[in-house]
Write a structure and sequence with these properties.
The protein is of the alpha/beta class. Helices cover 23% and strands 20% of the residues.
């Protein structure tokens, strides 16, 4: 890691603007890579950055899509598809997925090894604070608060729903006659 590079863990609950903050920080740099946990979220972020900078400098790399113009400055990818390109800025969203039994190894690898030349953001849940503090020397922490208050309105049952009953579709049927 470059001595001038700083690593910041931006932690907080859902709906605190962590991803939007990372996009703004990335666009403040000449080059950047952002890794997102979902293909559709990557597409949404790609569209936003294309709107801000134009399609000739923004790449999208997921398991299903690959749009890579000649003069890429900003890479938007699923975390698994993040390219190692030596960008000024790197962000990894939903870093708490390090704990996921299926995808955690990828997020852990990015947490330990992927750095921007000037700035790296690790975005996610407060539950990751102890692990990040133990694994990333010199990390700074930033706490984001929820934009709105969530409240539970109680259990409501839709008028159109009724209690499910076993139907003939759930019972085994024979499609072939028994051999004699």
């Amino acid at each position: 890691m470059n001595d001038r590079s700083r690593v910041t863990a931006v932690l907080g609950p859902t709906n605190t603007g962590k991803t939007h903050y990372a996009i703004d920080r990335m666009l403040a740099h000449r080059t950047g890579v952002i890794g997102l946990p979902l293909r559709l979220l990557a597409r949404e972020v790609y569209d936003r950055i294309v709107k801000a900078r134009g399609p000739s400098v923004v790449a999208l790399v997921t398991g299903e899509e690959r749009i890579v113009p000649e003069r890429v400055q900003y890479w938007v990818a699923t975390t698994e598809a993040m390219p190692e390109v030596g960008a000024d800025f790197v962000a990894i969203d939903e870093i708490q997925l390090c704990a996921d039994p299926e995808r955690g190894h990828v997020f852990t690898d990015r947490l330990l090894n992927m750095r921007g030349l000037h700035e790296t953001l690790l975005l996610g849940s407060d539950t990751m604070r102890p692990a990040i503090a133990a694994l990333v020397p010199g990390v700074q922490f930033m706490r984001r608060e929820r934009f709105s208050t969530l409240s539970w309105a109680g259990s409501k049952r839709s008028a159109g729903c009724r209690r499910a009953r076993p139907s003939s579709a759930s019972r085994p049927t024979r499609s072939m006659p028994r051999p004699s």
